[in-house]
Amino acid sequence: MKALLKTLPEDLELKVDEVFTSKENKKIIKKLVPELLDLLKPRYNPTQTEIHKWLAALHRHQRGRYLKKKLENWMPIIVAFMQIAD
Length: 86
What we know:
The protein is mostly helical. The protein is built from three helices and no strands. It has helices spanning 2-7, 23-40, 48-85. The protein starts with a helix and ends with a helix.
């Protein structure tokens, strides 16, 4: 599944800076699910619900990494601010 997602155009990538259920991601999912169904059909016949759950799980992990990286970038600033406040 992840290998298939890498072959798709960039406009079908979920936005990790937004929650899975955001308007933008919902638009992308509407386009992405039928595309993935067609790509997976030769070997596997998943339901739309299964693909939706897979995408949600992948997005959750990608968003977790994104948020962790974002926090790591802010951590030195937060620590410096806390030292000034003391």
